[in-house]
Design goal:
With about 140 residues, the chain is an alpha/beta fold. The chain contains six helices and five strands; from the N terminus they run H-E-H-E-H-E-H-E-H-H-E. It has a five-stranded parallel β-sheet, with helices on both faces. The chain is globular and about 40 Å long.
Length: about 140
């Protein structure tokens, strides 16, 4: 049986522009973990699942630092941030902008059940971002 949504996802992931730094798993896509799987099976990927509720920017940075322990910074090409909706909205926005600016050579994959509207109002950040899957029209 042909899985149209899976094939669309694979096609869109294969065609992400080289200028795209941040890939948001669309919050209404019921198989967000498929997006994570696409990246996590590749070498040089760091997976960070945020734990807790109402996490602050400091909490987010602390959990990323813990995940990075014993990891060579230069070897990381992709970072998957999962369960981002466990943070305060403004805290995650601040965290992601800072992280993206400090790690421009890395691809960031964001999995959350909430749309980061404030981030998308930033023209520079929006130009480096995409939602997967999306309607190509």
């Amino acid at each position: 049986m042909f899985d149209w949504s899976h094939q669309t996802l694979q096609d869109q992931l294969a065609n992400v522009s080289n200028s795209t730094q941040v890939i948001f798993a669309h919050p209404h896509y019921h198989n967000q973990k498929r997006i994570a799987h696409h990246f996590i099976i590749q070498p040089n990927t760091l997976y960070v699942a945020f734990v807790g509720d109402n996490l602050s920017t400091r909490d987010l940075n602390g959990q990323v630092a813990y995940a990075r322990e014993n990891t060579d910074e230069t070897s990381i090409h992709t970072v998957i941030f999962d369960d981002c909706d466990h943070s305060k909205n403004t805290a995650f926005n601040d965290f992601l902008i800072q992280y993206a600016n400090e790690h421009q050579q890395q691809t960031l994959v964001v999995i959350s059940r909430r749309v980061p509207y404030q981030l998308l109002e930033d023209d520079d950040f929006r130009s480096r971002s995409t939602f997967i899957p999306h309607n190509p029209d």
